[in-house]
Design brief:
mainly alpha; Jann2411-like fold; two-stranded antiparallel ribbon; 7 helices; 6 strands; 53% helix; globular; binds zinc ion
Length: 187
């Protein structure tokens, strides 16, 4: 995978893996079942070579990675930055990146991983490093878990004032509606 847009991609994929592959509640509903093939097809579309290399046998590894990333999001949501950093360091140690120049159509480009790198270690490294870079840039507070009732999906807050609390507009709106109803019934 190329270095350009590395952080953005890693953050986006980490968020999508956690939200698609860890059980719990999604925007008001209990997630009945996990569909790794569908989630991975959608998530890895961001990197066509990864999508092309994806095999059925990779699914369990991605589900495991998603669980580990959820733990990191949970630590960061609770401002347990030391614990998040320890876990990220473990992931980075297990799946090191290997920056190197590779020639593509006569142009040298900086890559993080060999073209034939195994998918799960590669994405472990990409996601962990992207989150680690955010923490290193004092942006640990931008990772969160949705505060809406019956939702535990995660988000990365890219808003200007870092005030995001919900995974989606769906949760923001249904929380508003619930608060309105509660006020109406109470008064
Ligand atoms: Zn939500």
């Amino acid at each position: 995978m190329k270095l350009d847009s590395y952080v953005d991609t890693g953050i986006l994929v980490a968020q999508q893996l956690v939200n698609g592959l860890t059980p719990g509640f999604d925007r008001g509903k209990r997630m009945e079942e996990i569909d790794p093939a569908g989630v991975l097809a959608a998530t890895l579309a961001v990197d066509p070579p990864s999508l092309a290399a994806l095999k059925k046998r990779d699914e369990a590894g991605f589900v495991q990675l998603a669980r580990q990333l959820r733990t990191v999001f949970g630590h960061l949501d609770r401002a347990e930055i030391d614990a998040a950093a320890r876990r990220l360091n473990t992931l980075l140690g297990e799946s090191p990146a290997n920056p190197h120049l590779a020639k593509e159509d006569g142009v040298w480009r900086l890559h993080r991983h060999p073209a034939d790198a195994a998918l799960v270690p590669m994405w472990t490294s990409v996601c962990a490093e992207a989150i680690a870079r955010m923490i290193g840039a004092q942006n640990a507070g931008r990772f969160g878990i949705c505060v809406a009732a019956n939702c535990d999906r995660v988000f990365v807050d890219t808003s200007k004032n870092a005030s995001r609390r919900f995974c989606s507009l769906v949760c923001q709106n249904r929380t508003k509606v619930a608060a309105f109803r509660a006020r109406k019934n109470g008064g």
